[in-house]
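Appendix B. Chain record.
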Amino acid sequence: MEFTNSLLKGKLIKRYKRFFTDVKLNKSKITAHCPNTGSMKGLLNEGNEVYVLKHNDPKRKLKYSLEIIKSQNNLVGVNTHRANKIVNHGLINNLIKELSNIEIIKPEVFFNKETRFDFLIEKNNEKSFIEVKNVTLFRNNKTAEFPDAITSRGSKHLLALIDAIKKGYKSYLIFLVQVQNMEKFKIAKDIDREYYKNYLLAKKAGVNFLAYRCKISSKKIFIDKKLKIIDE
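Structure tokens predicted for this chain:
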């Protein structure tokens, strides 16, 4: 996935009201849209290097969006709306080895009245649902974690993936690690023990869990490397 314009480098002042981020850009202060409503745990230290995208749409109230934060010398992609685009690019270009040579890719497909999965894919007459989770949390230099806050919605998706298996589909959950230099991935069970419990249930039921790290720059973000998932 390539950015429409090159990103502009600035310094983080603060993020507030979930959707707003004040950034020092050159010698001015601008307010950028924050396209991540999560906790963004560990990323929001004042003075962190950030990268914003300037938009040309005259109808936008905020002309900039926050795209990348540099934390502990790692670039982190924080725009959750880009996660599905990155995975879609990965599916089309066979960057996810377990899901290569897919014949049909359908985004945003309803499984039932309450649940919509990110993708429905087909290969050799076999249908699979894929749910994508954007990962930005890391508390040491090499291990990414999810979630960064309690997520009842995340648990709901795990249970729905189990239900999909019972109805004859294959189920995948991709942890898209938008953090440079990570080598492993794990569930942050100290943050959300219920999610960890449902993760173990889903794993036992046959849900396929994958973690892939992205390569990140101010011009593009794309899937780069599979990470080992560790259960602790």
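Further analysis of this model is presented in Appendix C.
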